[in-house]
Amino acid sequence: MEPFIISEGDSPVIAAAIHEGHLIRDELLPYLNLEEHERSREEDPYTDYLSEVSPSRVIVNVSRFETDLNRPRSKAVYQQPEDAWGLQVWKTPLPPEMLHQSLETYDAFYRRMDGFLKTAIGRFGHFALLDLHTYNHRREIHEGKTEEADAAENPEVNMGTAYNLPQWKTLIQKFITTFSGAMINGKAPDVRENVKFKGGEFQQWVTRNYGKHGLVLSIEFKKTFMDEHTGIVDIYHLRDIRRSLRFTVDELAEELILTRNV
Hints:
- This protein is an alpha/beta fold.
- It has a single domain, classed as Aminopeptidase (3-Layer(aba) Sandwich), CATH 3.40.630.40.
- It is 34% helix and 17% strand.
- The protein contains six helices and nine strands.
- α4 runs antiparallel to α6.
- The N and C termini lie far apart (42 Å).
């Protein structure tokens, strides 16, 4: 399987699932200190499913535990527990040649994204990149049971927008307002901006290089639609999220086309 798949669809809205992947190169497996379920919990399952809201898609199949594409290059391979939520990822330090190969995946991804965004700008004039993620909210253990994190600091949907240029503020706010008005799992979702996450290296890289031509929404869905420990999903809840996201994406694409024609 390819480390990542980039599909150029007929839309200025690009849906990316860069932490969806679970694959680890065979040569790395003897060094790996984590069980499969430990890796799965920190990856972002079902974001490839959510990315189906647009025909323009970026799907990463490689696990973030091999190469994290949302970190600066110097931090893209976890080497210390503090790099990975306190987890000891490797039994022993990786040999330099293996580390180098993991970074080659990083470099190849950003080269491909560079060409992809240039093509999108040439076709549509502007773009919007939805950087889709999920996050855990039941880390704390009290009397042997996990407890949900404080909802005041952990919105159901966190919109990370911090690194976009000011010119996109109105369009970003319209996207957030529209999505906030959706019905997900029987109620309007708690959607807030830059509370838990502001956006990672992927958003910053896009803004540094193409910020005048497009915006990035780093959307973190709290794992209320699934059991973050077992991976069991509530498919109806997940479908609600995708349906609401698709409606908002359609509106965003129309706005981007109008922006080009102004």
